[in-house]
Task: inverse folding
């Protein structure tokens, strides 16, 4: 036996003699070829069975495992998933990877095409695969079959396998693999690397063990062949699990071998010699074969050069409605003109690989003479406004070890200047522009501290500024500018701590933690904002920390040396900020660790809670914050004037060919028709102010629940106000159609929590028919309010009404207040106030919102509210809890099933159309909602036999930067309610619109953005807009329109109550009432 040849490994079911028959997954020599792929018959006999196919030749072959055999001059045996490589001598091998012959290593082994996906990828790692290595160290070859490119004549194109001169020998190879109903594609186009042109990029297509083995056998970047589950680097023979647009073998890459000339024929189970039609690959895309000549030869020539063309612009979606009156509308968008013809994208490869992103930046900076001064580079992808050669090779020296690095810059795409890929670095450019005009970056916005407004009486200062972003809409490229204000307090965190200490010395740490956790502070020495996540009571400014260079210093010394700040209080604790996990270019996830702040030099931001409850203080503040439409546009024009008159900013923008306009956008919107409000026996059209507060207290509501047994609880000092309130209830109830009996009065000796809870529980126990509990309390006491709601919503379910005594202390306003309270009490009992005419029948409207606890101590809460009748006046509500700050909802299915069952109980049928308004979803989460939340709803329908309702899923976005103004005469004013904009400002990828549904009394118009992400009901844009506007009329806590649809507002109120006060799911007995208003 030749000592250089490895022994035949033991294998279950396999004979030790290679010239005998094959066992295991293989076949007896007399058996036909069977496998998951197809067989290509040739003139000679062949044996093989596996997941791939046999490539028969003149010599009988033995094969074990999943691979396929390759004809050679002498027999070889392959074990496992590997691939035998032809050699002069017969050889045996067993491995997951490549089987080499037993001969000594040779330098003339076949190499991979330059476009191989793994070759490209490993070159990105600094590895140059070009030759094979021998023995155990031979790199693995994926689950494939063998084939070669010998000259042969094609008689019939086999099913799913295509050959043509255009595919032969070129690197534009692709293989599809079917897996659990999906097809994975790996594409390497002109050697640009993994996934550059991938239809469905999946990182798990490469076995990590193969990478490990390769690095182990080639630690210094030695040349070797390394193949995974990739694609053929040349056109080859074979069929895998999925349809392939050319000849390829098995799951992976086929190594060249010697294939004798002969005809190719496809084989099927029914007719071994009948060609099968091409198969579709993914999402209805069928790969049709290119033109094939009668005789096809594959000469060993260089890959054909592919000419890159600019990406084409897609067609706009049909989203424009027609209903309503046209009106000229202005917006805080400024058109941007792109002077450059294109932006060029390049892929940058460093050989050997350079891991450090900073080092990559430095090397690219050394070659600015080639790339130009204007670049956008993230470590791998380079964007330039100028066109280079298709492939540019540069040299740099790594200063750490003097290693010469080859930099390959290869063009991959030609982008239009308004492409979405260009938007991120356009925004980076504009951030530099804002800095150039003298604005300071605080958080994400830019402010002008020099123009600060000082409110000395309230110890506040207001910084005016701007929130800006460049974005692409249906109308083109725009700069969105919103006027922003930063409210800063003159008090430091240490000052606030001292106040808390004076108020509560015994529980100082607990109270201080409760007050500060979740607050945003600003450090004025660098104008950065931080969120307080914890307080480190055991540390002080005297403690030390490690610097980036490894040295240690104290906080006192650090601030004195770097900022010239002298810290006076040495025993103060430190604040803890934990940054969120973020990603760097290249996809590596990093966590920067904890940041410790000194309270003495950290200042509170935002409006204090105490001030929010002070009407006069808030009035003084809103005078400076809530600017009118005219003031808003004036501030924007001031910024545009600064930008367009500054030579530095014009040069910065001109480098990328950007020209920002000087006037804001004016387009055409529509004002929807006014709606008709329906009461029990009266109906009336709304006015331009969309308010009907007088009508609802003058006429009877749709349905009123008689209030026979109810109780009112109040402390002794509020007895007079309680008596006056009950008397006013009886005076105003008649015209409203309500009937209520005298209540059970319970006077409490004090206003402690225990007193309220015990008294309420006692009354509920003694009077089981109690319908409603009314509590009057003094001051804004969240602890007392929470205790009452927990008792009445969770432990002993009953509708409850909590009233602050200050609300009913003004006699001149008592009548109006009593009317509103009675309306709210009627809702909580199950009454119905008003509705609008909705022509859609058998309709269910659902509102969904998520509440996040600011302190991060409690779970996030989803509120779910669904209509139960055709009038949209009865509602069903549920709550689900999920992980803190989790926005995507997991409990959709449970809530919808319960709502459908309740709907069936009420109507004895199920809804035919379901419209969901989903609040609280950002643009980056839209696709996740479509992929994760919508399927939950669809799956719920399967519970009911033969039930397939039409579903519409609309995302509601309130926190947007878009502002609308109506153009009347020669000035901008707030637009009227019902104003719709469904073009120009809308997104290109979705059917969406902006709706201003509420009356603007102060400030400028902030619309709500609605995005239809799923619509099987075929509702037109007009239907969606009219239905949404109607829903904004049905919030019974306000006799007018609101900014979002009523079910969304109900869901928000429910989620807020459950997350902020209850911290648990409310009792199911209350689910068919609006007890949370």
Result:
């Amino acid at each position: 036996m030749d000592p250089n040849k490895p022994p035949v490994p033991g294998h279950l079911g396999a004979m030790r003699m290679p010239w005998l028959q094959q066992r295991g997954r293989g076949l007896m020599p007399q058996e036909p070829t069977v496998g998951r792929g197809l067989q290509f018959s040739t003139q000679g006999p062949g044996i093989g069975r596996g997941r791939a196919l046999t490539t028969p030749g003149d010599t009988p072959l033995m094969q074990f495992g999943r691979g396929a055999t390759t004809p050679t001059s002498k027999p070889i045996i392959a074990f496992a998933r590997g691939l035998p490589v032809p050699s002069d001598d017969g050889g045996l091998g067993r491995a997951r990877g490549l089987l080499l012959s037993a001969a000594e290593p040779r330098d003339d082994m076949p190499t991979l095409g330059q476009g191989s996906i793994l070759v490209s990828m490993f070159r990105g790692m600094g590895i140059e695969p070009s030759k094979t290595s021998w023995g155990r160290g031979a790199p693995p070859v994926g689950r494939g079959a063998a084939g070669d490119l010998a000259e042969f004549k094609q008689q019939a194109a086999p099913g799913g396998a295509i050959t043509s001169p255009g595919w032969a020998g070129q690197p534009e190879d692709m293989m599809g693999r079917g897996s659990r109903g999906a097809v994975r594609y790996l594409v390497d186009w002109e050697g640009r690397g993994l996934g550059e042109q991938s239809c469905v990029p999946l990182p798990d297509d490469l076995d990590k063990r193969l990478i490990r083995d390769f690095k182990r056998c080639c630690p210094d970047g030695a040349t070797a062949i390394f193949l995974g589950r990739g694609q053929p680097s040349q056109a080859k023979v074979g069929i895998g699990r999925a349809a392939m647009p050319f000849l390829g073998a098995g799951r992976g890459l086929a190594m060249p071998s010697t294939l004798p000339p002969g005809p190719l024929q496809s084989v099927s189970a029914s007719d071994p010699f009948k060609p099968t039609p091409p198969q579709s690959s993914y999402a209805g895309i069928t790969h049709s074969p290119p033109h094939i000549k009668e005789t096809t030869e594959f000469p060993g020539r260089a890959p054909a050069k592919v000419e890159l063309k600019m990406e084409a612009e897609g067609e706009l979606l049909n989203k424009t409605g027609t209903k309503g009156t046209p009106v000229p509308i202005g917006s805080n968008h400024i058109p941007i003109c792109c002077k450059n013809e294109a932006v060029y994208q390049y892929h940058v490869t460093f050989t050997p690989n350079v891991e450090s992103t900073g080092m990559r930046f430095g090397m690219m900076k050394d070659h600015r003479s080639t790339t130009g001064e204007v670049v956008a580079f993230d470590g791998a992808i380079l964007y330039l406004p100028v066109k280079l050669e298709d492939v540019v090779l540069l040299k740099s020296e790594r200063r750490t070890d003097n290693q010469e690095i080859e930099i390959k810059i290869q063009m991959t795409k030609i982008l239009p200047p308004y492409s979405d890929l260009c938007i991120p670095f356009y925004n980076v450019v504009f951030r530099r522009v804002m800095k150039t005009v003298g604005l300071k970056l605080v958080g994400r916005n830019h402010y002008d501290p020099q123009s600060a407004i000082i409110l000395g009486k309230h110890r506040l200062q207001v910084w005016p500024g701007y929130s800006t972003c460049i974005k692409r809409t249906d109308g083109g490229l725009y700069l969105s500018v919103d006027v922003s204000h930063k409210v800063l307090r003159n008090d430091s965190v240490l000052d606030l701590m001292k106040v808390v200490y004076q108020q509560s010395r015994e529980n100082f740490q607990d109270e201080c933690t409760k007050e500060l956790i979740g607050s945003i502070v600003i450090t004025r020495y660098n104008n950065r904002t931080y969120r307080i996540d914890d307080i480190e009571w055991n540390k002080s400014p005297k403690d030390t920390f490690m610097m980036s260079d490894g040295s240690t210093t104290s906080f006192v010394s650090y601030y004195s040396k770097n900022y010239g700040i002298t810290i006076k209080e040495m025993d103060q604790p430190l604040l803890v900020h934990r940054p969120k996990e973020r990603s760097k270019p290249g996809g590596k996830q990093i966590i920067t660790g904890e940041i410790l702040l000194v309270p003495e030099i950290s200042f509170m931001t935002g409006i204090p809670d105490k001030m929010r409850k002070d009407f006069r203080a808030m009035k003084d503040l809103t005078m400076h914050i809530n600017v009118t439409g005219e003031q808003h546009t004036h501030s924007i024009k001031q910024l545009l004037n600064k930008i367009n008159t500054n030579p530095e900013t014009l040069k910065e923008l001109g480098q990328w060919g950007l020209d920002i306009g000087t006037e804001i956008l004016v387009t055409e919107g529509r004002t929807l028709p006014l709606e008709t409000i329906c009461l029990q026996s009266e109906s009336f059209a709304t006015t331009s102010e969309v308010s009907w507060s007088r009508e609802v207290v003058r006429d009877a509501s749709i349905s009123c629940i008689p209030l026979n047994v109810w109780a009112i609880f109040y402390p002794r000092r509020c007895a007079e106000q309680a008596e006056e309130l009950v008397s006013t209830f009886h005076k105003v109830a008649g015209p409203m159609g309500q009937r209520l009996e005298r209540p059970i009065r319970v006077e409490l000796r004090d206003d402690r929590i225990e007193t309220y809870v015990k008294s309420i529980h006692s009354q509920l126990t003694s009077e089981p028919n109690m319908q409603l509990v009314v509590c009057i309390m003094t001051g804004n006491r969240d602890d007392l309010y929470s205790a009452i709601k927990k008792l009445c919503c969770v432990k002993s379910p009953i509708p409850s009404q909590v009233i602050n005594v200050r609300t009913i202390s003004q006699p001149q306003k008592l009548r109006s207040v009593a009317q509103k309270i009675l309306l709210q009490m009627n809702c909580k009992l199950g009454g119905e106030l008003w509705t609008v005419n909705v022509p859609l029948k058998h309709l269910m409207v659902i509102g969904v919102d998520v509440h996040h606890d600011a302190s991060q101590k409690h779970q996030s809460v989803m509120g779910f509210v669904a209509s139960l009748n055709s009038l949209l006046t009865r509602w069903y509500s549920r709550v689900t809890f999920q992980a803190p700050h989790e926005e995507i909802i997991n409990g959709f299915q449970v809530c919808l099933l319960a709502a459908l069952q309740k709907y069936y109980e009420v109507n004895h049928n199920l809804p035919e159309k379901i419209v969901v308004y989903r609040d609280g979803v950002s643009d980056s989460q839209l696709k996740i909602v479509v992929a994760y939340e919508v399927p939950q709803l669809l799956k719920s329908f399967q519970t009911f036999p033969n039930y397939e309702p039409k579903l519409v899923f609309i995302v509601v976005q309130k926190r947007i930067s878009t502002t609308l103004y109506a153009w009347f005469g020669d000035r901008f004013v707030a637009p009227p309610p019902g104003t719709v904009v469904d073009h120009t400002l809308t997104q290109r990828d979705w059917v969406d619109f902006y709706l201003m549904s509420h009356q603007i009394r102060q400030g400028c118009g902030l619309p709500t953005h609605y995005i239809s992400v799923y619509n099987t009901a075929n509702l037109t844009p007009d239907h969606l807009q009219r239905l949404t506007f109607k829903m904004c009329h049905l919030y019974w806590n306000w006799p007018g329109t609101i900014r979002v649809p009523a079910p969304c507002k109900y869901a928000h109120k429910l989620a807020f109550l459950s997350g902020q006060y209850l911290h648990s799911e409310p009792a199911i007995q209350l689910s068919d009432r609006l007890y949370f208003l």
User: Anything to note?
Assistant: The radius of gyration is 36 Å. The CA atoms of residues 169 and 301 lie 7 Å apart.
